[in-house]
Design goal:
globular; mainly alpha; 8 helices
């Protein structure tokens, strides 16, 4: 495929698998080090929330929403109120662009608004290396979820599980609503795996909310 065409295809594209996986793993490790509890739905939502800029007109993808400065400003009140308990969630947010987007696809405005200079390795998100990284982090995250029994929490009532509707309906499901599919065939299974975890959680909590009306 022509390099310019490939770059155009990648301009507004991002795969959720690696973001979910690295966000979960990094925040889980941080929470363990700091000896704090971790709300998994919040972590998973924050791990992909920067890509909300794809849905906002006139906002550049991997621009202001992918800036470490923007993230720090947003988290100032959370640091003030929750102190060290906010750190794992901050890590879940910033790993999105400091690790995921920096490595794959590159061209991230990490220091906006101080500068619009873009940073990254420029590795194609369609490259075999990136696909392998997405699979590796996905498998690692699932293994940790099973070992720590975090996976079981998706099938238990919890109001915060409704937050999973944000990544489900803005990132995961839309990848299957285009033709041809906007996600590589090799990454369909990990996407479906996350959907199979998130949708039951959403349905369980919606059902509980409706019963209480």
């Amino acid at each position: 495929m022509d390099d310019s065409l490939l770059a155009k295809l990648e301009e507004n594209k991002s795969f959720a698998v690696g973001h979910f996986a690295i966000g979960y793993i990094s925040s889980k490790a941080t929470a363990k080090i700091l000896k704090t509890n971790l709300n998994i739905p919040i972590v998973l939502m924050l791990s992909v929330i920067p890509d909300i800029d794809i849905l906002i007109p006139f906002v550049q993808h991997r621009g202001p929403a992918h800036s470490i400065i923007t993230a720090l400003i947003v988290f100032i009140p959370f640091f003030a109120i929750y102190r060290k308990r906010a750190i794992p969630y901050f890590i879940a947010l910033i790993q999105h662009f400091l690790i995921g987007d920096y490595i794959a696809a590159g061209q991230v405005q990490l220091l906006w608004p101080l500068t619009t200079q873009q940073y990254g390795t420029n590795m194609s998100i369609f490259s075999p290396t990136n696909i392998a990284l997405e699979w590796t982090t996905f498998l690692a995250s699932i293994a940790i979820m099973v070992i720590t029994k975090d996976a079981a929490k998706f099938f238990q009532p919890h109001n915060m599980n409704l937050l999973l509707s944000i990544p489900t309906f803005t990132v995961l499901l839309p990848t299957f609503l285009s033709f041809p599919l906007s996600v590589p065939t090799s990454l369909i299974l990990p996407h479906l795996a996350y959907i199979s975890l998130f949708l039951p959680s959403i349905i369980i909590d919606l059902s509980r909310a409706l019963k209480s009306i």
